[in-house]
Amino acid sequence: MGYKSDLKELIDDLPKLMQQYSIAMAQLEHNKQIREDEREYQANLSLYQDAKTESIRNERLYNETRQKYLETGLSLEKLNDMFKTNKSLKVLDDISTVKADDYAARADYYSDQAMNFATKTDIMSGVLVDDVRKAKNIMAGGAGPTGGSDLTGWDVQDINIDAFKAFYGEDAVTPQVEEYFQANPGSIQTALSTLQSTDYKQKISEQKYNYYKGKTEGSGPDKSRDWYKQRISSAKTTSGKSMVDAYNFAANDEKYDDLPANQNEPLMQSATLKADIMQDLSVLYGVPISDSLYDEYDMMFKLAAGSKMEGKYTPGDFTAYHEGVQKAYEHYSKADNKDEIQQVAQRIFGFNGLFKNFAEAENVLYTQSLLYDFRNEGILDEGQVDDTIQEDEFDRIIGNLGAE
User: Fold this and answer.
1) What is residue 190's predicted lDDT score, i.e. its pLDDT?
2) Which whole number is the average pLDDT over 291-305?
3) How far is it, in rounded angstroms, from Cα 74 to Cα 257?
4) What long-range pairs does 366-369 form, CB within 8 A, spacing at least 24?
5) Can you tell me the mean pLDDT for 367-395?
6) Pairing assessment for the beta strands 307-309 and 312-314 based on DSSP bridges
7) Please, what is the Cα angle at 143 between 141 and 146, to 5 degrees?
8) CA quadruple 19, 23, 25, 26: dihedral, nearest 10
9) Nearest of 102, 78, 106 to residue 92 by alpha carbon
10) Rounded to the nearest 5°, which phi and psi values hold at 307?
11) What was the pLDDT predicted at 112?
12) What's the Cα-to-Cα distance from 348 to each of 97, 191, 237, 306, rounded to whole Å?
């Protein structure tokens, strides 16, 4: 009887037990869902916070780059046209339409916004690095005094949009390039005055050089030194170094004495061009950008200039130029971006043509210049100088490298 009574009681309680089991399982599932929802909530909140932080950072970089873009004289109108035609930019809804606690949707919004800021910054940086940089190079005399009515001296056709087309080709002329030249007529006139003044001083310097050279050197022609002088002069123009010097000189005008540095326009222009040169040198040697790069480049020109003391002329020393060329060529030989390095080398060292041919010929010419130095200083007699490069070979090498 007892066994049957317990079984009957169990059977009678079974529905209640099943109900309790179902409630317990439902509670477990509910708790599990709550934990999953909490994890998802925290994950979405974290994504939202990260996306918003990235968006704020990218917006700051965008505003900084936009300011630099506007300072060049380029307009927002053409910039906005570039943005409209870029298919990678996403159309964003109004953030106010997104629920405040919908962190997944807000994370998507700020992630897209961050990407848009980054894309717009890249577009503007591309214009500054490519179009504006090329235009500045032409304005600094990078195409040389080969256009206009004066084929041997500087005129406005040497540094305007026509010179840009002749130097880089019609395909390189973008709306931003055209606008840059149109927006900066004052810069063109300033650059022209500087180039003409520098050209005049260079001619006077050459006359002095020839005079003192005749006083201190032997009667034989020193073609290697003449070649170096031409390359140094060309490099000063094509690299933008002559413009840096000109702006530095203008920045010392007394009208800027009481102004802070950021209001000294020539000084700011000089700093911009100096930064461009340091960027070039960084690419050329494959090293980080630093002030020492520019200092060494500046010293190269000072050493090459020569000097006059107590009535005696001391010829320039081209060792720094030679070491720079060979160091750059060593990096060029191992690098993947050879085209970029070659273009930079042409600006920095003032030559045309292939870097390989230039570096090899420069190495030979440097050796020959040392032989002349030894002869002129009495270390070697005229008969001891081994003229490994004959006159016709000099003419061929120098001619191929674009010497005048």
Assistant:
1) 80
2) 90
3) 30
4) 366/224, 366/318, 366/322, 368/224, 368/394, 369/222, 369/224, 369/225, 369/228, 369/318
5) 49
6) antiparallel
7) 100
8) 130
9) 106
10) -155, 160
11) 87
12) 55, 19, 9, 20
Report residue 329 as tokens.
């060529």
Which residue is it, tokens 């050459």?
Answer: 206
Judged against a pLDDT cut of 60, whether residue 247 lies above it is answered with: yes
Confidence band, pLDDT 50/70/90 cuts, at residue 390: very low
The pLDDT of residue 323 is 93
Report pTM: 0.47
Neighbours of 218 (CB within 10 A): 12
* Contact status, residue 197 vs residue 179, Cβ threshold 8 Å: no
User: In sequence order, what are the residues at sequence separation of 6 or more whose Cβ sits closer than 8 angstroms to the Cβ of residue 142?
Assistant: 167, 237, 238, 240, 347
Task: Quote the CA–CA distance of 240 and 248 in Å, as a whole number.
Answer: 12
Mean pLDDT over 251-276 rounds to: 82
Average pLDDT of the chain to the nearest whole number? 77
Helix (H, G, I), strand (E, B) or coil at 173: coil
Q: Within 13 Å and on the Cβ side, how many CA atoms surround 373? A: 14
The pLDDT confidence band at residue 312, using thresholds 50, 70 and 90, is low
When mean pLDDT is compared over 47-51, 200-204, 288-292, 306-310, the highest value belongs to 288-292
Cβ(227)–Cβ(368) below 8 Å: no
φ, ψ (nearest 5 deg) of residue 308: -125, 120
Instruction: Determine the Cα–Cα distance for residues 28 and 20; give it in Å rounded to an integer.
Output: 12
- With vertex at residue 59, the alpha carbon angle to CA 288 and CA 42, rounded to the nearest 5 degrees, is 105
Give helix 223-238 / helix 291-305 axis angle, nearest 10°: 140
Is residue 277 classed exposed, middle or buried when 0-12, 13-18 and 19+ CB atoms within 10 A define those classes? Answer: buried
What are the tokens at 249? 């000189």
pLDDT level of residue 387 (50, 70, 90 thresholds): very low
Closest by alpha carbon to 331, among 401, 281, 383, 385?
Answer: 281
Alpha helices in 239-389 (DSSP H): 241-251, 265-285, 291-305, 319-334, 338-349, 355-376
